[in-house]
Amino acid sequence: MPIATVNPADGETLKTYEPMGEEELERRLQLAEATFRTYRLSSFTDRSRLLLQAANLLEEDQRDIARVMTTEMGKPIRQARAEAAKCARAMRWYAERAEELLADERPADADVADSGGTRALVRYRPLGPVLAVMPWNFPLWQVIRFAAPALMAGNVGLLKHASNVPQTALYLEDLFHRAGFTEGCFQTLLVGSGAVDEILRDERVKAATLTGSEPAGRAVASTSGEMVKKTVLELGGSDPFVVMPSADLDRAARVAVTARVQNNGQSCIAAKRFIVHSDVYDVFAERFTEGMKALKVGDPLEEDTDVGPLASEQGRADLEELVDDARRGGAGVLCGGERPDGPGWYYPPTVLTGLTREMRIHREEAFGPVATLYRAADLDEAVLIANDSPFGLSSNVWTQDEAEVDRFARDLEAGGVFVNGMTASHPAFPFGGVKRSGYGRELSGHGIREFCNITTVWHGA
């Protein structure tokens, strides 16, 4: 794939970039290593000041960078502005809390004495240059939720962004430079995916984080395992949205629409499989389908657009194949399901019913505004359907019954259980999944410690 901005609303190529050559890549790796030697010694106060300045600049740039994101990958402009604002808030969150999150920990005196020591502490030290391989769907947020904690921990970042969002990638490097970070603290590497393996094998790169597809995750994990380097992987999801009889059906149906089509349906934590108790299935299905039909599909730069184009022509083709496969297997279509005429990579909000385990969409992630509806006879069947997926990123549960909440929280195979609300990422809460959704955690104290050397300092008598 060329490194280029291609407007998904009309397919026009706006800007192209030449990949970095070996000489420039080597210069940047040397710079990252050299910068880390001094940056790791900086104080939390200095790091916080720089990150807060970056947050201020991002807020000033909000409208401009939102337009860049929308032009590069098609998200509705209102959502692009909200993404920029969310990034600024996350930077402030880490700037204000990192010192506390990474404070030295002191084991109990009794345990220290039992070890034969007089005192001990656990200290969190940075690892070094960390490679971030990031996707296009949230081109700012995915990077910031790595960069903010990594920089506050004293690491330096190397960003290999998706090849279809080069302007956003370059903006991020410039943002940190303008904020006052030393040049080598955060660098964008304009390289193709084929260069990732070589970069990972470089001894100067100490760890990697990837958000993306399963094949990409396997490749990074394989090389990192061979090189014995720490990795954090977030590889997507097919999140269940379970509706029980005690739920507020009007609100559940409204939130379900947003949960499915946020970011044009191209979100790892978007609800994708809607599992509804038989007692309320018909009512929910009707209200949900009405909401999906009412969405405005159109130019993502228009303020009232709800759903814009998919980010790439191939992405739309992949989504169509999943829908067509389900149809051939006997699935019903309550709305959508047909590619519209005209330019751009648009696909309508679609609701499928009558799914079976043999259909590809039952086990594969649908990355676009396509929802699958399942009927469950009771709570036990709802849990079985929800867990019948290779993914386990997050989940949504709608019920007023606390016993049901406890059961879902205990039995759903996911990294998150959101009750009576839509799954969302927030810097205060750990984010990540199980099964093929990956491993490790981003955000919160768990996320900032992922790329730290957890060091025991012990003193004898």
Can you tell me about this structure?
With 461 residues, the protein is α/β, with parallel strands linked by helices. It folds into 2 domains: 3-235 and 437-460, Aldehyde Dehydrogenase, Chain A, domain 1 (3-Layer(aba) Sandwich), CATH 3.40.605.10; 239-426, 3-Layer(aba) Sandwich (Aldehyde Dehydrogenase, Chain A, domain 2), CATH 3.40.309.10. The chain contains 16 helices and 19 strands. The strands form 5 sheets. The chain has a 7-stranded mixed β-sheet with strand order 11-12-13-10-9-15-16, with helices on both faces. Strands 6-5-4-7-8-18 form a 6-stranded mixed β-sheet, with helices on both faces. β5 (156-160), α7 and β6 (186-188) form a beta-alpha-beta unit. It starts with a strand and ends with a strand. The mean pLDDT is 98. Pfam families: Aldedh. This is Succinate-semialdehyde dehydrogenase. Residues 3-457 form the Aldehyde dehydrogenase domain. GO terms for molecular function: aldehyde dehydrogenase [NAD(P)+] activity; succinate-semialdehyde dehydrogenase (NAD+) activity.
Order of strands in the sheet with the most strands?
Answer: 11-12-13-10-9-15-16
Rg, Cα atoms, Å: 23 Å
- Total count of domains: 2
Give the low-confidence spans.
none
What's the level 1 CATH class of the largest domain?
Alpha Beta
Which structural class best describes the helix and strand composition? alpha/beta
The CATH architecture term of the largest domain is: 3-Layer(aba) Sandwich
Query: Overall mean pLDDT score?
Result: 98
Distance between the termini: 61 Å
Largest beta sheet, briefly?
7 strands, mixed
Question: How much β-strand is present in the residues?
Answer: 15-25%
Query: According to CATH, what is the topology of the largest domain?
Result: Aldehyde Dehydrogenase, Chain A, domain 1
Question: Considering DSSP H and I runs of 4 or more, what fraction of the residues is helical?
Answer: 40-55%
Global shape: globular
Count of helical segments? 16
